[in-house]
Structures are given as C-alpha cells and as structure tokens.
Design a protein that fits this description.
alpha+beta, Lipocalin, eight-stranded antiparallel barrel, signal, Calycin
Length: 173
Amino acid sequence: MKWFLSFALALKCLSDTTEAEEVILMEPFDPTKAGGLWYIYSRNQNLLEKTNGAKCLIADIEHDAGGMDLYKVEAKWTDPSLGDMDITLHVVDDKVHPAQYFFLHDEHRIALSILGTDYDNYLVGHGMLGLKATYFTAFRKLPADPAVMAAADKILQKNKVTRDFQIIDHSSC
C-alpha cells in the first residue's frame, strides 16, 4: 500500500509540472472557406501507414453540393517506391462544432479537428485514428512566408504542442 501511495504522489507531482498537449477547436470556424488545395507541410506522426515516407503530400478539400455537411478530401502524395498515390475520404462535420469532422470511410475512421486557419495561407489541425494522434500544418503555397509560418506556430503554442515535427519533402513536386 505504501508503494502505491508513493507512486500516486509521484504522478501527482509530475502532472503538476508537466503541461499536456491540447486540442482547442477554432472559434469561430467557417468550413466553406477552408476548401481548396493545401500542401501538408509538417506532421508529427503518420495516421495511415501508406503515407509513411510520403513526398509532395497535398489535400484538396471540396464541399459536396448535395449535402450541407459533407466534404470530400482527396489526398495525393508520391511514395518513393510505388510512385503516385491517392486516397479519397468523405467527411461529415460534427454537429456539436463546425471545426470537428469525422471521416466516413470503412477502413479509416479518422477524426479531424481544425485548431486554426486564416483560410488564405495556413491551416493547423489535429487528427486521430484509433489511439494514434497527430498535429499537422498545411499551407496554400510553398515555400510559406515566414510570417505565415509564425502564425501557424502560434496556434501550436496555444495548444501546448511540444512534439517534434517531420517536414514533408515538396522539393521535387
């Protein structure tokens, strides 16, 4: 019993001194303005194994005119071994908050949260697939202006994100 109390006390001390990452949804968010082409610039984990080592990763978001809350996300990338790859996912917004989405796909049930965007230059998001989670940054054009990158970094700081990010290679796209 003593060891359990010591362990619990140690955990409490650690939790008091360590800040956890957060997922603070963008307020207000207009999903109709976030459509179009985004260059995925950085992420800290691959949600889908098939995008491991991806180069030239882009996402094209299109509103489905037939449904108020449906969106199509087409991701394209180059795999060094397999060549050009793509996947199309259909997304429905969460009725609780317009900056949160769920992918309607049999194989990949991904939740996506928009943490911040200015709609014209940068987008910062968080994605989850099962227990895997990633933060990512995307830009409308690359290379991104340093001021635009700084604005995206502020969103990550607001969410207390301290993970290391992988920069996606877009040099030969």
